[in-house]
From TrEMBL:
Organism ancestry: Bacteria, Bacillati, Bacillota, Clostridia, Lachnospirales
Single GO MF descriptor: ATP binding
Protein name: ABC transporter related protein
A Pfam family: ABC_tran
UniProt entry keywords in alphabetical sequence: ATP-binding, Nucleotide-binding, Transport
Species the sequence originates in: Cellulosilyticum lentocellum (strain ATCC 49066 / DSM 5427 / NCIMB 11756 / RHM5) (Clostridium lentocellum)
Domain (ABC transporter): residue spans on this chain: 6-259
Amino acid sequence: MEQIMIKVDHLTKEFVSNKKYKGLKGAFKGLISFDKVKKVAVEDVSFNIHKGEIVGYIGSNGAGKSTTIKMMTGILMPTKGTCTVNGIVPYKARQKNAQNIGVVFGQRTQLWWDLPLSETFSILKEIYGVSDEDYKERMTFFNQTLELESFMESTVRTLSLGQRMRADIAAALLHNPKVLYLDEPTIGLDVVVKDRIRVAIKEINARYQTTVVLTTHDLGDIEELCNRIIIIDGGKLIYDGTIEKIKTLFGAKKTVSFDVKDTKPFEGIDYRKRFGLSEDALSYELHPSEISFCFKKDQLHFTDLMNEVAKTSEIRDVKMKDTDIGDIVKSIYKHGMIEE
């Protein structure tokens, strides 16, 4: 039976603030008013994450991702519901929980700005009580996966963004935490560094069975690293499942472009009428030397479409692609709660 590492049960977080009024009179009124405004950042969210999983926790800005992460790390206390990480209630036992987790925020660093990177790791070794043997073994592994050696003696302030992110990931993992929270770990990085960090995360997960919770707007991270995603919107959980499942539910469309010898004969052809399909099931656009179609795979076969196009003009090339996870997630953000 798989071990549940993170258990979130009906988690809710409300923030209460003083009501603000417009203008100068409003400012004075605000000083003596006791009116309050309640904002629900996370509402009745429940999920389990098992040991060794890499889970993408995604949502648009203001959806409640960071608030959930802060409750899981012990920074915030839930208004309602419960959260346990490796059997610990984070906000009740912050120090004990800190021994079990590593956290990397893309826009912040836990490294000492004016110290050489090697000294930062030495300090963290003492803080977490890492033995000499474990420290040597882990640093050797981090040097292999994250390629830290070339800048180990550089002060943190002189590191590039990519170097700092690699160092931050190593620092978060130095004490071999059971759970690693990654908040936008590849933001602002070039393609080469992104790929290196993704490979490192997969190797760390495989070697140490580290449970990884990844929040990101880079859907390349999600497709490369995660088998499962949890989507939150407006503080509510709207999807929890595999990427393949969500592609099956919402990725039912295929896009195909035909490079044709002559596009003029296609002008005025109504392909929806020809195939008896709705606008939702089939859409198409005419471009110079190309006609492109987007259609539901369960209502139209590609071969039928290709044969129809071939009747009108010679086909020189064909490009096809299924709906990718980025398009699917954007659609979900627009339409809200998922109903299977």
